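Materials and Methods. Structural model of glucan endo-1,3-beta-D-glucosidase. The 481-residue sequence of glucan endo-1,3-beta-D-glucosidase from Cephalotus follicularis was retrieved and submitted for structure prediction as follows.
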Amino acid sequence: MHFVRKWITLCSKKRVEEFERPKLFKNLLRGKSQRQHPQGKAKIKLHNANMQRKEFTTSSLFLYLSSLCLILKLSFSPLMTSFVIRFVMKIHIFILISLTFSDYGFLHGVTSLGISYGQVGNNLPPPEKVLGLLDSLKITKVRIYDTNPQILTAFANSNVELIVTVENQMLAVLMDPQQAYQWVNTHIKPYFPSTNITEIAVGNEVFTGDDTTLVGYLVPATVSIHDALVQLGLDKYVQVSTPHSLAVLEESYPPSAGSFKSEVAVVMSQYLQFLSSTKAPFWINAYPYFAYKDDPSGISLDYALFNPNAGMVDPYTKLRYDNMLYAQVDAAIFALARMGYGNIEVKVSETGWPSKGDPNEVGATLENAAMYNRNLLRRQLGSEGTPLRPSMGLDVYMFALFNEDLKPGPTSERNYGLYQPDGTMCYNVGLSALSSSTSTSSASISFTSSATKGAEREYQSLVFCMFLYLLTFQVFRRRPY
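The predicted structure was written out as tokens:
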């Protein structure tokens, strides 16, 4: 049964584990973990994920057809007992279920798009109006940067899945298990499950912030919060993680060179152990804009904006990247694998492009912001994965819902929003296509086109699975036993 569970996982799981292919079936049969070698050992052998899943799915299809033929042959053989035939039939049904969850099947994970709802402004609409805006845009995943009780109350009994945040300045206090319990009991339990709080972000970009003392607080505070969730019976519903800046990586180009900075390695290893044990995701705030701004002559703007371009090929994996965001995500996956945690899912907790900036902020224009977010939406609606994990949809939270007039820093920091505080649209990225069929903008047209393609793929998968089930039914109906 252990082997059966492993096989179903490989056929249905929308992620690609980093392992050596020659050892795959040995590890499955022996029940070994598919974690990577620790950092400093031999090279991590990551293979083309797309080919891997195709091989597994094709193998399942071959086994399905073979078992079908075997059932037909055995059914009409006078030497075969009904027990043997029933045994082969059980194997056949198991393979059919595996195919249902595979690339040929229709039970795929759905890529989700969320949005960051910041509140650093003195002119923002009340949460009730924000919820109405989100409903009109059909956005069901939201990240906030605190536990604002007004938002938690306003979002009750809605279809919004909410990520709340523990502010960085609270980490030292929440190292104490009693304080963590009190925090969860005050800020989470009274609102759950009416308000669908799904994740708690413990701090934000702690490893790369100005206050280096926070790094030592992160793991104890995270563990204490999770333990409090366990005590209150909420750990099955609410995950705990922390968003990281891409600056935690020592190398990110090419993606296969992805690795963490040595100064964060010790604490990062402890944190990854926690994520692995709780099956929580690794979050990154990934901004191709910053890379382009720092090196506009060396980085193609089209590559940063998801526009058609020559792209780049990773010299080690031979995987082709046509946009920077996916390259950044895969670099994080490689970094995790080098630490021995290639099985952890990576999610993008923030990404966006400013519509306005200071004179020295190259690329911060309304046109580029609209193009980046529009193309990102198109990719998300197509349920795309990265080149390393093509069959695993990538969860992304777009930054941000509103321009926030009180944010410190350069002009760009106050101009990441899709909307002005009064609710007027800064630029149309195609979200209106979800709520209105009358829009004729190019954004809405391309967005709807991508939706149609995604629906067509799901329909084809459904027809394929219906054919397999019908074929199986006909064979079983006609058998003499």
